[in-house]
Design a protein that fits this description.
Blueprint (H helix, E strand, L loop, with lengths): L10 H6 L3 E4 L9 H17 L2 E4 L11 H14 L22 H13 L3 E4 L25 H7 L11 H9 L5 E4 L6 E6 L3 E6 L8 E3 L7 H11 L4 E5 L6 H11 L5 E5 L2 E2 L15 H7 L3 H9 L14 H7 L10 E2 L2 H14 L2 H14 L9 H14 L9 H9 L7 H4 L6 H18 L4 H14 L4 H13 L7 H8 L1 H20 L2
Parallel strand pairs: 1-2, 8-9, 10-11
Antiparallel strand pairs: 3-4, 4-7, 5-6
The structure holds one RNA strand of 75 nucleotides.
Length: about 525
RNA sequence: GUCUCCUUCGUCUAGUGGUUAGGACACCGGGUUUUCAUCCCGGCAACGCGGGUUCGAUCCCCGCAGGAGAUGCCA
């Protein structure tokens, strides 16, 4: 078709430029890991090719679409820092980008297919009486492991609508039956295509769902019709989507063929699974990006980790900024096999990023958690930020997620009024020992003061040596007295942040507990 | 059931017709440390099975097994 391709020279530029890809979520639930991974791959692919990334909202299921879900798509994109070149919000030359605003289009194209004899009105089908699944996203629905078998066969369409007599049609029309539009699928032959990730895939036409519905009786298109029409109209060149779409791709190809359109390239992405190997869902743990966000994962950690689910760069590198991925991403490195989502590795990534974060930014990210505990003025003031900043050295390397800050600094913002004797007393020691050690340790602190932390440190060590015991024995009772816990940030720094005055009271309180324990021995 | 896809350490993955099959997380051990954490060092651990092709297969082909997905007027 290209007059220049006689010499075979002009094919290359076509491959490299003008790539147009899209992410086409349906606003039925919060954006989840799998969806976002697809979005990311599309985005990176577009950027790496200098192409366009389109966001299209597929809200053709009226009953399951929700405005909050739509908002969540935008929020998630913004949080991750990925911008669509064309979207419902930014607009673009191929809009509208919301399918519910395009229904006339689908109807018109469905009619075109009917006129061409490639589709037909079916008056025999009635909607499933099954109640719609309601407001929940698919992931929220508990699966019944054993019911899957009957599904395919039970209510399968058997082409009766294909040859209904005119009289019969009139009768049903009169009775108020609203027809659906079905694609006429030739039962012989096969459809095959070359998937950019998977290679050649073929499927016999008779194995496809029998004459699938294109237009529902409510006038809305099904995914199959809408996605083909829109991808064509929006001049999408590459469809990158999850592997769960592989089985219906031949169907889509048949639709392209019926219209006489050239189909785009397809690249089916490996799915994201839970620990047990089934599609990642609620019961595996958090799945939506907002949830991770709330718990205190950083966007760069999420992005980095998710991108590595089914894609790799080489044999060792695993840290990538968004900018780097925009350049380095390539289809060739996509894996075929599904990937299991590993929450622990995500934690590790997050910890790594947390430790690298500039102070200002870390303080900013942490502040909402402090506010939520009521430990700052609301809104937080400069003094609150400075206070937190001072705590950073004490807590930073102890954070896996931002929310971890709360238990770590609680002792500074809330009174400690109870001490457990068991924690106060080091192993193999008596309450009396602990009491003495606590007294001694505190005496050292009082004597040296808190100006010079190293000096306190030294003095404590010296004191321990003098009475011939481990520093730990000296410090543990003091740590528990100060923080109320045997696990805490570094002691001297903690006391310093608490202040001598408050620390003194806590030591006294703990001392009382030890005395009581000693006498009851 | 049928159809489609997939198969390297527990997990994410690199890799080649001849490698001690590499890295990371997790795990285990050791070190630093004041608890926890960080950090450092070390260790454990994989080519699903059976046939071919080949001088030689983890890699190529076939079969099997296992897993997943699809089978909706959901996407």
């Amino acid at each position: 078709m290209n007059p220049d391709d006689r010499d075979g020279y002009n094919r290359q530029p076509l491959m490299n430029n003008n790539a147009r890809v899209r992410y086409a979520p349906s606003p039925t639930g919060m954006q989840h890991i799998g969806g976002v991974r697809t979005a990311l791959f599309n985005y990176f692919f577009a950027r790496s090719r200098g192409g366009a990334f389109v966001l299209r909202v597929e809200d053709t299921d009226q009953s399951r679409s929700h405005p909050e879900a739509l908002q969540d798509i935008y929020d998630t994109f913004e949080w991750l820092g990925i911008a669509a070149d064309e979207s419902p919000r930014t607009g673009g030359p191929y809009g509208p980008y919301v399918q519910s605003e395009r229904i006339d289009l689908y109807r018109r194209y469905a009619e075109e297919l009917i006129a061409a004899g490639r589709a037909y009105y079916d008056y025999t089908s009635v909607p499933r009486d099954e109640a719609p699944r309601g407001a929940n996203s698919r992931d929220d629905v508990a699966e019944e492991p054993s019911e899957s078998n009957e599904k395919g066969t039970a209510g399968a369409y058997n082409f009766e609508g294909r040859h209904l007599s005119p009289e019969e049609i009139e009768k049903r029309k009169a009775a108020g039956v609203v027809p659906v539009v079905r694609l006429l699928i030739p039962q012989d032959g096969k459809t095959e295509f070359n998937d950019l990730v998977l290679g050649t895939i073929k499927r016999k036409n008779k194995d496809l769902p029998p004459d699938p519905i294109l237009l529902k009786s409510d006038g809305f298109p099904t995914y199959h019709l809408a996605n083909v029409v829109d991808d064509h109209l929006m001049e999408i060149t590459h469809v990158l989507r999850a592997q769960e779409w592989v089985p219906s791709t031949p169907l889509h190809l048949l639709i392209y063929e019926a219209f006489g359109w050239d189909p785009p390239e397809f690249a089916h992405l490996p799915m994201v699974m839970g620990k047990d190997g089934s599609k990642l869902s609620k019961r595996h743990g958090s799945t939506s990006v907002v949830e991770f966000r709330r718990q205190g994962y950083l966007p760069e950690a999420i992005m980095n980790y998710i991108t590595l689910l089914g894609w790799s760069y080489d044999d060792s590198r695993e840290f990538f900024t968004r900018e780097e991925l925009e350049e380095l991403f390539s289809l060739e490195k996509i894996n075929k096999a599904p990937a299991v989502f590993d929450y622990r590795k995500l934690d590790w990534f997050n910890g790594q990023y947390l430790r690298e974060l500039p102070e200002d930014r870390l303080v900013g990210e942490l502040m909402p958690y402090m506010e939520a505990e009521g430990w700052t003025s609301v809104p937080a003031e400069r003094a609150d930020r400075e206070r937190l900043r001072a705590l950073l050295p004490l807590i930073r390397e102890r954070l896996k997620v931002l929310g971890d800050v709360v238990p770590l600094v609680r002792f500074l913002f809330e009174d400690v009024t109870e001490w457990s004797a068991e924690e106060l007393i080091p192993k193999k020691a008596t309450a009396r020992d602990a009491g003495r050690w606590l007294e001694l340790a505190w005496a050292v602190v009082e004597k040296i003061g808190l100006e010079d932390q190293d000096a306190v440190d030294q003095a404590l060590r010296a004191a321990a040596e003098e009475i011939d015991t481990k520093v730990g024995n000296l410090l543990m009772p003091l740590r528990v007295a100060i923080t109320g816990s045997s696990v805490s940030p570094p002691l001297v720094g903690s006391i310093r942040e608490l202040g001598l005055e408050r620390a003194r009271k806590r030591v006294a309180g703990a001392q009382a507990v030890l005395e009581r324990a000693a006498t009851s021995d």
